[in-house]
Amino acid sequence: MSSPALPAVAVDGVSKTFRLPHERVHTLKERALHPMRRMGHEAFPALRDVSFAVDDGEFFGIVGRNGSGKSTLLKCLAGIYAVDRGRIYVNGRMSTFIELGVGFNNDLPARDNVMINATMLGLSPREARRRYDAVIDFAELREFEDLKLKNYSSGMEVRLAFSVMMQVDAEVLLIDEVLAVGDAAFQQKCFDEFARIRREGRTVLLVTHDMGNVQRFCDRAMLLERGSIVELGEPDRVAARYLELNFNRGETDDGTPRDESDAGRYGDRRAEIVEAWFEDEAGERAKTVPTGQRAAFCFRARFREPVADPLFGVVLADDRGTPVFEASNVLLPACGGFAAGDEATIRIAFDCVLSSGRYEATPAIARGGSGVAWIDRRERFASVVVTGARSTDAVLDLPFDLEVLSRERR
What we know:
With 410 residues, the protein is an alpha/beta fold. It has nine helices and 19 strands. The strands form four sheets. Strands 10, 12, 14, 15, 17, 18 and 19 form a seven-stranded mixed β-sheet that branches. The protein has a six-stranded mixed β-sheet with strand order 5-6-7-3-8-9, sandwiched between helices. Strands 2-1-4 form a three-stranded antiparallel β-sheet, with helices on one face. It is globular. One of its GO terms (molecular function) is ABC-type transporter activity.
């Protein structure tokens, strides 16, 4: 009976704490006035009992907000930081792309830096020379190969560093935000290289803030928050949890902002929007809805004065602020009048064909006629996270059929 295959990477109960100074004596005067004052330190736990395993050939995403422990974890995996507790196992040769320019000498030209960096990553000098042309050509730096690195732009430097890493035959790759620098053409090259790595069955641990890349490339993903794992599993589920955690900090459990200030609010307040939420296909309140299903946006209005035939509507915008959906009853039959003290609940149902991401809703009540006059309009009053869409750069994930109608050979 054969033994089970060892994981490519195993992390068992790893913790890492940094000591941060919390008081400094800046001047001689302060030292003279407070001679007995001592420098204190505060313990900052960057990683707290982190345990997970990455299988051989798996593309594994690591996500989290700034300060959650992602980069610290990668540096522990790479051996840059020693762990305080726990153990790390890596089965195979590992190559890292963690910080831009690490291992480079700015006073040397690209030619020398490629040789030095490739040797540091494990290639023999002979193998580094053999692969030099492939590195320079991939980085598209042939005409700058004899230029000192201190004259390179950050984009040129990251292209060179990434190209060197891709030429190392490592079984395990650690990559920290490689796509954050570089133009669109270089990013596409990175995508192509990731696809090649997947076909070759190599193991990749990718730290990123881009949930599209997590859903596009990763077999599994992990979400860190304050040094602890809060979600581990399917990329769609981890991406949805990340978006909720990252963007819904100021909202209640139903997605309505906690802050009741008048910022981003317009109108004469004859009626007030007092609550807003999203519903899933089952009609339950939801902070996430899957693409391809029926969903609804609802809000509750309270009338302070009589209003005849008000207009109700909503604008939905993506996380860049681009409106992607608008709905109102402006072209529908009049809804009738409301008296002071009346309350109304408005429900706007729609087919959710949006791509994955976070969307904010701006509900409004207005009076029609020759021009719209706002009664109450509340900017970005509620939000929802859409999950499960195909990886796409488009706003919509529309259903479609594609077929090849003819084929001609010439």
